[in-house]
Amino acid sequence: MKTNVSAAPVYQQEKNKVLNNNFRPSSNFYHSDKIFENYLKKNSSADGFAYMSDKWDFIGKEAAGKMNELSLLADKYSPQLVKRNSMGENIDEIKFHPAYWDLMEIAVKSEMFRVKWEPSSRKKFNNEKQLLGFGAGYLYALSECGQFCPLCMTDGAARLIDLFCDDEDKARLLPHIYTDNADDLFSGAMFLTEKTGGSDVGANIVVAEHLEGENYLLNGEKWFCSNADADIIFALARTDSSIKGTKGLSIFLVEKVLPSGERNPIEVIRIKDKLGVRSMATAECMLNNAVGKLIGREFDGFKVMMQMVTLSRLYNSVAALACSRRALVEAYQFLCFRETFEKVAVDHALIRTKLTELGSLNAANFYLVWRTVKSLELADSGDERESNLLRLINPMTKKWSAETGVYITRESMELMGGLGYIEDTVMPKLMRDVMVLPIWEGSGNIIILDMLRALTKTKGFEIICDEINKSAGNNALYGHWLKEELNKLILFSKKLIQLPQDEMEASAKPFFEKLTSLFQLSLLIDNLNEESKQWIMPAVNYLKEKYSPSELKEVKPLSTDEVKDLIGWEF
């Protein structure tokens, strides 16, 4: 019996590929992100844009290339605690993988701190330093979200030094933050959380005993110390244990190295084994007569610390935006070159529908986050109106960007199928990293209570209503609808603040979620221009429908080209 060789099936090795031959990932996240680039061009000054352009280009290229490998290495080989040396002496040294320090050097070169704090840059870009600095930070966080926490703490330390420390401390410490040499960088930390308190900071029990002058000896355990190896630490402690709650807290500058050159006696008990953000060290630390300098007035510690928390909440929002944006574009790039069922994956209707949802949420978060950056900038310049607005929208932005960031990242992972679940890709790291963001800097319930306080004690709600009304007045297509929905929220707000406390708290969550969504829609409308309408209009149409869902009806998905416009990503 003869075999017909010519009729036998032939295995086509050239077709055995996950993606087709046209695959080309982004080589520079700055230039790929049309939404981000458009915003920077419209909102930064000519001088600011010119000064930072090459820095954004640098960090965009690094984030798309070298940082990918470094980030995965730093995540895989997380910090290790060396408790003792060979002589049996306690040294409490935290060892980092070399990739960690390479990533830190890239951060310094991006000038995310220098543009804010170096005196000549700070003066020149005083009205846009947050935009310029966070611009570099956003690009950095697209690739490395874990180390964005130590960078946040460092910027926060600079903020407290600038606002509350004496001239000698400013002259000595700030140059180590805005340095352009990574070897000279002093990183920062906030030692706030304790076992007894957690989110209830008023339950903290670490004590401070007066030593001499402004110096105190601090004793007790801090339970979550992110960036535990920091050079500059701000720690809360009690000088008088009889004064309960946050009113009894004072804040202290605790430096890693004492003027004598000796290490300040801070014992690292253990490094936390975290689900994500593994590249940086979060530890449990025991202060054993650690020397701290009183900053600000005694018992004003919580008030002072909230200045750092205000900034760190905004960092949390930028991190959530960047992390979920990266997940979305990873999935989008994959789907543009993956062929399934005789089509490119992005051409399938259900995939286009899902990308419409995720792209709309991303666009809405984008403009909310950057509006909050702008609010901080203006509030810091003495704008009382913006200060009131910031008091409401900063926690709002933190909560919403974090929660939707988790959702966008998870859904993007699913769009990539099994490959998105494999550790060879960046997706699992993004998923682990983004999960912490709803928890850090005030978990969801804490944020709701904070927004309630802002509603009753500031003019923030009145101002946000005014902002939405202005947007409505400038848009004939959606203006009437915006005003109608806003009036419903205003009426309900009056009922809300009259409810019994338990009912008020329980009712506040859906109220603030509606307010956030309406504010996001108004911001999308405010940012319409000839280029941005490509992604803003699909997002507005989708989110308006989601805000007030109608009865079941047929769905007409966006075309592939419309989806591409909405995602706003080139490669």
What would your notes on this structure say?
The chain has 3 domains: 29-184, Butyryl-Coa Dehydrogenase, subunit A, domain 1, CATH 1.10.540; 188-299, Butyryl-CoA Dehydrogenase, subunit A, domain 2 (Beta Barrel); 304-567, Butyryl-CoA Dehydrogenase, subunit A, domain 3, CATH 1.20.140.10. The protein is 54% helix and 12% strand. It contains 20 helices and 11 strands. Strands 3, 4, 5, 6, 7, 8 and 9 form a 7-stranded mixed sheet that branches. It has a two-stranded antiparallel sheet with strand order 1-2. The chain has a two-stranded antiparallel ribbon with strand order 10-11. The radius of gyration is 25 Å and the shape is globular. The chain starts with 28 loop residues before the first helix and ends with a helix.
How does the SSE layout of this entry go?
Elements (H helix, E strand, L loop, with lengths): L28 H4 L1 H10 L2 H19 L1 H11 L3 E5 L5 E6 L2 H12 L4 H4 L1 H6 L4 H13 L6 H17 L2 H7 L14 E4 L15 E6 L2 E12 L5 E7 L10 E7 L10 E6 L10 E14 L5 H36 L2 E2 L2 E2 L4 H32 L3 H32 L11 H8 L9 H14 L2 H14 L5 H18 L4 H26 L6 H15 L12 H8 L4
Parallel strand pairs: 3-6
Antiparallel strand pairs: 1-2, 4-5, 5-9, 6-7, 7-9, 8-9, 10-11
Number of domains: 3
CATH topology of the largest domain: Butyryl-CoA Dehydrogenase, subunit A, domain 3
Sequence stretches where pLDDT stays below 50 over 5 or more residues: none
Give the overall shape. Answer: globular
| Total number of helices | 20
Using DSSP, what is the number of strands? 11
Major sheet:
7 strands, mixed
CATH architecture of the largest domain: Up-down Bundle
In CATH's first tier, which class of the largest domain applies? Mainly Alpha
CATH superfamily of the largest domain: Butyryl-CoA Dehydrogenase, subunit A, domain 3
Helix content: 40-55%
Structural class based on helices, strands and sheet pairing:
alpha+beta
What is the straight-line distance between the termini?
56 Å
Work out the radius of gyration. 25 Å
- Mean pLDDT comes to 95
Strand content: 5-15%
